[in-house]
Amino acid sequence: MNTRIEDYALISDLETAAMLGRDGSIDWLCLPRFDSPACFAALLGTEDHGFWRVSPVDGGPCTRRAYRQDTLIMDSFWECPSGAVRVTDFMPPRSELPCVVRIVEGLSGAVAMSSELRPRFNQGRVVPWVHAEGHCTVAVAGPDSLWVSADGPMEIRGGAYSTAHDVGLRDSTVIDFTVSAGQRLTLQLAWAPSHLPGLPAPLSVPAETALKATGDFWRRWTARCRYQGPWREAVTRSLITLKALTYAPTGGIVAAPTTSLPECAGGERNWDYRFCWLRDSTLTLSALLRSGYREEATAWLDWLVRAVAGDPADLQAVYGLGGQRRLPESEAPWLPGYEGSRPVRFGNAAVNQPQLDVYGEVLDTLYLSMRAGIPMRPHLWSLVKSLMSHLRDHWREPDQGLWEVRGDRRQFVHSKVMVWVAADRALRMGEMLGRNECAEEWRAIRDAVRREVCHEGWDAEQGSFVQSYGSAALDASALLIPKVGFLAADDARVRDTVRAMRALDHHGFVRRYAHDGVDGMRGSEGTFVACSLWYADALAATGHLREARETFERVLDVRNDVGLLAEQWDPENHRQLGNAPQAFSHIALVETAFTLQEAEAEAAAESAHATAGQTPRRTAVMSTMPESP
User: Fold this and answer.
1) What DSSP string runs through 183-233?
2) Each residue of 346-388: pLDDT tens digit?
3) Which pTM does this prediction carry?
4) Would you call 456 exposed, middle or buried from its count of C-beta atoms within 10 A (0-12, 13-18, 19+)?
């Protein structure tokens, strides 16, 4: 495959998602869930690993494409010598079984079109048996079946049979048709368990009915957005993407709908992100609440609380869509990988890593939910006490940190800062609930962590907090120190750390850290999108608003043509890297847009006060956290 990551758009039904290329090909689709085996896996291999392309016979990328405003409905346009055509792709929000709808509409002239369907079940590995059933072509292998219907005059090659008993292996099913100006033809694909008889219910819904219902759903949802600042289009698209990555039955939000898109093309930094990470939890909740999506925030919180139930010693960084704990990591040698990036991995071994920072993320999320007025269930105070009891005994231990390094465990500064956050938020929740039985112990932990971090995690020579104790390496996670309230933004150590982070700059974007073997992996990677946005936040907090805005807008400029961000950006080769679209990148974008809007409004108010001869009030540089109890 030669398609760049940024050439893909996303369509979703809130239970799974498809990656749609500019050439009209769906090259990645897992059915029936985000974490199910893929039936189209050309994204990680070749066309022999499964795809579904609808495009003019002459092929090639579309002339232009765009989501319909405030929706996840994609329109792709081809302008050909013989005429013009539009293909509209979407997945109706799930009520029963998953379905992909592709409406082909002639705009001018007459265009010869082709639909080529090549399903490969079980992660691009299994060629299905194919037969005709009524007006549908049905592909079956093991527990899976795909039903494809078409509603117009079309010639079917390679997969149509005269009777339901005419069955066989087929490389692909090709449908040829011509669409003239004003003519509409529809192709629909639905998944169903192979043991269920009869036509899948979604195929009985007229395409135009499904299109209207899908558009209405997204427009109603988007209308709830409270953000009205200068970057509304980018914020809205990021929120729609975040909603699209939500597994609606449980409220869990996957980090990305893909696996093994590389952080370095041709390299080994290839991970499965089709799961839910706890460390995304606070920023996710904050972004949803600030944007007006309380229902989604509550669903995410409920998912988190269910997932972390149990022994606090067993707290994981990542869980499955339903909160499942076992996500065994395996490799897929039959897939050559995106641009030869091997191995392709399914599952994620990060479930087995000790990561102290997630305790802070969980308690910060619970505290934020309380501040937002989301009721705290009675048993959650027991959870708070249980988590803090575990930290009391284990916070001094090394771990594998925010970046889930596969090298040696270390005393990562960010992990210790988040232990401080855990103790701080536990104290605050106790104060709000009138529960002070553990206050003295937790205050002692909080104070001890701060003393240690400020002594062991500070490098006086370069004037910065560093990645781990005893190291001189910088780490972009130190930019979060003022955001979480560990130190105020006007603290000299914060200001010096923000200045020092310029050493991680790479052509205007921010790396996570310098690659010195700390993560146990070979090769380099791109700049990390969220880190560039954290840098913008820190610049704004320390009073550098112009530079903060420039940094933010550089990130906006590297979204793809339909507003999507991957995990990383390669500024040398001008391309996206890593799994896409990445929830963490879009969450950080929303948070930074709100941060800059608020900081600029405050700066304008200060300027007005100064002009009027009044004493200016300055709070933007301070932490947004209330004073510590």
Assistant:
1) -EEEEEEEEEETTS-S--GGGGS-HHHHHHHHHHHHHHHHTT----STTHH
2) 999 999 989 999 999 999 999 999 999 998 888 899 999 999 9
3) 0.95
4) middle
Could you give the 3-state DSSP secondary structure of residue 511? coil
| Contact in structure between 3 and 261 (CB atoms under 8 Å) | no
Backbone CA torsion sign across 608, 611, 615, 620? positive
> How would you classify the pairing of strands 25-30 and 252-253?
unpaired
Q: What single-letter DSSP state applies at residue 382? A: H
The tokens describing 2, both together, are 């030669």
Are the CB atoms for 557 and 298 separated by under 8 Å? Answer: no
CA–CA–CA angle 225, 228, 230 (5° rounding) = 130
> What are 474-509's pLDDT values in tens digits?
999 999 999 999 999 999 999 999 999 999 999 999
- How far lies 546's CA from each of 392, 496, 539, 617, in Å? 42, 18, 9, 20
Helix axes 232-244 and 583-611, enclosed angle (nearest 10): 150
DSSP class of 469:
T
Q: Which residues, 6 or more positions from 164, have their beta carbon under 8 angstroms from its beta carbon?
A: 131, 132, 133
> Which stretches does DSSP call E strand in 408-556?
458-459, 464-465, 505-506, 509-510, 527-528
Cα–Cα distance measured from residue 97 to residue 198, given in angstroms and rounded to the nearest whole number:
13
6 is written with which tokens? 């940024």
